[in-house]
Design brief:
The chain has 323 residues and is an alpha/beta fold. The radius of gyration is 21 Å and the shape is globular. The strands form three sheets. A five-stranded mixed beta sheet has the order 3-2-1-4-8, with helices on both faces. The chain has a five-stranded mixed beta sheet with strand order 11-10-9-12-13, with helices on both faces. The protein has helices at residues 48-68, 104-112, 121-131, 191-195, 197-208, 218-226, 230-254, 270-283, 301-322; strands spanning 10-18, 22-28, 34-41, 71-80, 83-85, 90-93, 100-102, 116-120, 140-146, 150-156, 159-160, 258-262, 291-294. Bound molecules: zinc ion (ZN).
């Protein structure tokens, strides 16, 4: 609330989801509705210092626009990829943005003068799907993002587990095929080396060999499989089986009510969900079978999750002040 007799204004949080190519940014109300959205290029090739400077500029710009619209920015939430130390607010390591121990939370808090939370992009996305999206109301949610890699967030009662080192949720590096292709992490047969969107395209090209006219995306493989093309059907079936193995491990560990699938591969919709539900069902012995659903928030999930982290930071801040 500002002084000089001004009317009380509606609170919003400033939310940013920083990816390797772009930043999704928004002003979000406490009820989860974005009142302004913006996209900015990350341009990671400029180096991590320049990216961090852009993050601060964009956040400050959004806070100024909020005030100009008669809103009150009360906190900032920033989601970034890689290894994130949420307790210290440090972007520890990121392959695609280049962060190495960047104290983004404190930098933003100092620049904007607002409580700030720093989170991991997939965990933020999972938080949003669990609290506002496809997992809403189900309490225990495993969000699995399947894109160029595969990562997960385990959300219990609206909070995503971070891990001791900020690296929880790396379900893409569960071993599913000991004799499988080598993963980017250096080990053979990781789930993401077999079943990420990138891996599906690679596998199809490998099997098609000389017959491959051009690179084929995972979405096209799904469609060709649905149309009955034998090669695509084989690749899709392999993908589904590997994902089911990975998700069955996840369910054995976490016993969730709902598994929410996001990322590019999940856009295949029922072409993925229907066979994957069947394959997961086959793998459940004494385990309780989770609901398997597609993400509801699309590529807004990370930004909305950053907003939720910001709102949680305000609550934590208020709580501390009252003590
Ligand atoms: Zn791996």
């Amino acid at each position: 609330m500002s002084g000089d007799g001004a009317a009380p204004t509606d609170p919003v949080v400033v939310a940013l989801d920083v990816g390797g190519t772009g930043m999704k940014c928004a002003l979000v109300r406490p009820d989860g509705v974005a009142v302004r959205t913006e996209r900015h290029p990350t341009d990671a090739a400029r180096g991590p210092a320049a990216v961090a400077a852009t993050i601060l500029d964009v956040a400050e710009g959004l806070a100024d626009k909020a005030r100009a619209d008669g809103l009150t920015p009360v906190a900032v939430g920033i989601a970034v990829p890689g290894v994130v130390d949420e307790a210290r607010g440090v972007a520890v390591w990121s392959a695609n943005v280049g962060f190495r121990d960047v104290p983004l939370r404190d930098l933003a808090a100092r620049r904007l003068g607002l409580p700030t939370a720093l989170g991991h992009d997939v965990r933020a996305g999972g938080l949003a799907e669990a609290r506002l999206g496809a997992g809403r109301g189900t309490g225990h949610v495993l969000f699995v993002a399947i894109g160029t890699g595969i990562a997960a967030a385990h959300v219990v009662d609206g909070h995503a587990a971070v891990g001791a080192h900020g690296a929880a949720g790396e379900i893409g590096h569960i071993l599913v095929r000991p004799d499988g292709p080598r993963c980017g992490c250096g080990r053979p047969g990781c789930l993401e080396a077999v079943a990420s969107a990138a891996a599906v395209g690679r596998r199809y090209a490998e099997l098609a060999g000389e017959a491959a006219d051009a690179p084929v995306s995972a979405a096209e493989v799904a469609e060709r499989a649905a149309a009955g093309e034998p090669l695509a059907s084989q690749v899709w079936q392999e993908t589904v089986e590997a994902l089911a193995d990975g998700l069955a491990s996840g369910q054995a560990l976490f016993d969730v009510a709902t598994i929410v699938l996001g990322g590019g591969l999940a856009q295949a919709g029922d072409l993925l969900l229907t066979p994957l539900r069947a394959a997961l069902h086959e793998r459940m012995t004494f385990h309780r079978e989770p609901q398997l659903v597609a993400a509801a928030l699309g590529d807004e999930a990370g930004c909305l999750g950053a907003a939720l982290l910001a709102m949680d930071a305000v609550r934590g801040h208020d709580h501390q002040e009252k003590r």
